[in-house]
Specification:
210 residues, Tetracycline Repressor, domain 2, 9 helices
Length: 210
Amino acid sequence: MPSITERRRAERRRQILTDAWTCFSRNGFHATSMDDIIAATGMSSSGVYRYFSGKDELIDAAGEESMAIFRALFDRLRATEPVPDIATTIAAIVEPVDTDTEYDLSRVAIQAWSEALRQPQLRERAGEFYREMRSQLAALARRWQHAGLLAPQASPEAVAMVLATFMPGMLVARHAADRVSTEQVLAGLRGLAGIDQPAGPPVHRKSRKH
């Protein structure tokens, strides 16, 4: 068993993380300073810096936490029998970061995606996670086919790509626009599936000058 000192260190580290995530969720990465985080913890600056070198390390930890939550979600979905249907899976994908805490990691995740544009290391990890998520969704799509929930001619990889692509959009809509429901998404996908492939690109006619 871990010693009391080790347990206490783990508790303090977790406290700093959750206080930082609360600040990030409320004000964003760039509007949150280390002084804000230190004030939220109620610890001394030296106490906080004993556990974390700075804000970038706390941002990285927030991204890792979000990815860990999604990995745990896919582990549960993969182990569930019978296989969860498509609607249940979509709802689970966009809801896993809802908690009863003061921070909302879905807000932090959205910021982490934009932060990945300027941090190559974070971008690399985000890309690895995205590919992993697509692989997990493709495995679920194959189970849907075996259960008769997905057309046998459907490509599991293509289905996984669609689900992995619109998931961030649903999270953005939750916080920046009108929340999109699972039923709306499924209705839209069914509508798109019924649209015939156009014969060619649209013709753009030039207006006449008079």
